[in-house]
Amino acid sequence: AQKVTQAQTEISVVEKEDVTLDCVYETRDTTYYLFWYKQPPSGELVFLIRRNSFDEQNEISGRYSWNFQKSTSSFNFTITASQVVDSAVYFCALISWGSNYKLTFGKGTLLTVNP
Amino acid sequence: ETGVTQTPRHLVMGMTNKKSLKCEQHLGHNAMYWYKQSAKKPLELMFVYSLEERVENNSVPSRFSPECPNSSHLFLHLHTLQPEDSALYLCASSQDMGGGQETQYFGPGTRLLVL
Q1: Between chains, do A50 and B104 touch, taking CB under 8 Å as contact?
Q2: How many CA atoms lie within 13 A of B85 on its CB side?
Q3: Chain B within 8 Å of A103 (Cβ-Cβ)?
Q4: Which of B56, B105, B109 is nearest residue A101 as measured by Cβ atoms?
Q5: How far from chain centre, in Å, is Cα B45?
Q6: Which of B49, B97, B102, B95 has the alpha carbon at shortest distance from B76?
Q7: Any residues with CB less than 8 A from the CB of A67 and at least 6 apart, and which?
Q8: Residue B57: per-residue pLDDT
Q9: Residue B3: Cβ within 10 Å count
């Protein structure tokens, strides 16, 4: 069975702190794609990043960075110098193709950045 | 025009009503999706269409009926809903369902309240 676990339900930090959101996944397929989405209070999910299972390079985009480690089945997301506008629910997701298409979202982590 | 639009943004309906949710994508994508997001539950994938053909139906009650008349439009017809169907309904689209084109872009959602 395919699974995505975001163990942190809620995180609260003070502005300018660094924060890491954890994502652990399970799949039996060798080809898969991992995603992070941000859902601000307005409700629309905003795509942040996509990684395929053959590319373990970490990525940095401004204050955002992602650490993909197949050995631990993790795809963690770090926000450096957090800002109030980073407050949102963040979802990790997994798409895989084995015998059929499978898509699984984690339950999300609510990040609150306080001024 | 924004990428994925949904109408209406808010809907209140009685259990005996019939209503439809509309989703339109302006991205030239071939795949479209309906999700349900309830409070304290993970995102649930309801329906997937690729090139106007239904690909996935995750055991959704028959009171939800999707329709995809062309690759740019997706409807969700609602009939005799229950109060527990109250949720945020999100539409998404992707270029394709595989080949590195799976990244989904979401609309703002329709917040549905069933009385």
Answers
A1: no
A2: 22
A3: yes
A4: B56
A5: 9
A6: B49
A7: A58, A74, A75, A76, A77, A78
A8: 64
A9: 14
Cβ neighbors of B61 (< 8 A, separation 6 or more) are none
| Closest among B47, B94, B82 to B67, alpha carbons compared | B47
Can you give the C-alpha Rg of chain A in angstroms?
14
pLDDT given for residue A102 in this prediction: 84
**Averaged over A50-77, what is the pLDDT?**
91
Helix (H) or strand (E) holding A92: strand A88-97
Tell me the pLDDT tens digit for each residue of A15-61: 999 999 999 999 999 889 999 999 998 888 999 999 989 888 888 88
Q: Which of A37, A45, A46, A89 to mutate to test the interface with B (most CBs of B within 10 A)?
A: A45
